[in-house]
Amino acid sequence: MPRAPKAEKAKTPVESSKPRKADKAAKTVKAAKNDRPAARSGPVRVASSPRVSTRQPASPDELNELARLWEEFKQNEVSGAREGARERLILHYAPLVKYVASRVATGLPASVDQADLVSYGMFGLIDALEKFDPGRGNKFETYAIPRIKGAIIDELRAMDWVPRSVRFKAREIEKAYSDLESIHKRGPTEKEVAARLGVTLRELHEVINQISFVQVLQLDEILSVGSDRGEQVSLLDTLADRGTDPTTALEGEETRGLLAAAINSLSEREKIVVTLYYFEGLTLAEIGDILGVTESRVCQIHTKAVGQLRLQLVETE
Description:
By secondary structure, the chain is mainly α. The protein contains twelve helices and two strands; from the N terminus they run ααααααααββαααα.
């Protein structure tokens, strides 16, 4: 018997409204996709904030004035106008020397004064001014920075009394120690360092002896004592004073004078015993042989003499 078709269920107002909301949401998503910019292929880059320059850009008047100074400096012969333009150009580019000197000073010990580096770099700036050709269209800062740095390094090398070969060996040994420490996670032995450098242990010791004379410290160099309190002392203050105290030396000299006077007050035999025993280093038996007496008799004379000396020194004090 054939089944009767099912009667359609009447849609409630809520169910009839669902398709309308879904269609509206789909249209909203589609519109948003159309408004979104096309995705770029490759890695996504985050835009960085623009760098704020601390130096104001040069105005057209300043640029024109700088061009005029270059023209006067390059075209005129030796004259007052050329020298004036040269001095003004040096003053204009002087901050460039200070910038290069500060960059070079970061890799130097604290004993090197940055003011000295600036004075060395001024020679490089003057040389760059003389050799620079504005007609080629290059920027002067780009041309001058390597020459300023080169002048500073040349002067530092000229002042360094240590040969460059020794400096190179010191850097190689330091690098070998650092590499071996990172590999073995401990301090390397001398044999491991020698094997790393490809030298014998004897050659390594010779190089270390050469390097030991390289380190030079200033006695007035400031050292930090406590990180919490921030106390600072100079290297000279940490050295032990091995000199004699003037007061101690004076007291010793006075004591020796009193002792000499007390010894002179002894009898002749007591004086001989004291002199031979304390100043000549003879034994009591040897002194007895010299005086023709027994050792026990020499001991009695010695005891009596020491007692008299002690008594006289106590009375003097």
